[in-house]
Amino acid sequence: MIRYLISDSMKQVMIVRTDLKMRKGKIAAQCCHGSIGAYKKSPADKVRKWENEAYAKVILKVQTLEELTALKKVADEKGIANYLVVDAGRTQIPTSSVTVLALGPDEDDIIDEVTGDLKLL
Fold first, then answer.
1. Backbone angles phi and psi of 104, in degrees to 5
2. What family is this protein classified in (predicted)?
3. Quick one: CATH architecture of 10-120?
4. Contact, 58 vs 14, CB < 8 A?
């Protein structure tokens, strides 16, 4: 479980599907796509605060698409900026595979409401 004591700290979280068996480089690329996608959708005030703190990023994991889409639904309900990465299928995995859900940046405690029970990748 990922929890922080300082409630006004900011972070961005990428959640990776492990059932796709992506290699490390593929995971890194997918997380980069997610990070940029969620960043572009985030409110400017949250981006500025995150940029002033050190750009904290955390990579977590889920085992299935169903888990990932359930987390996206919760993030949407809570108003957390998010981005679902859908792969083009040029390398390791089939076209249109959903690989990563990126959240934020947002306050740690807000993101933890969605991801607090997940494990680090």
1. 85, -170
2. Belongs to the PTH2 family.
3. 3-Layer(aba) Sandwich (3.40)
4. yes
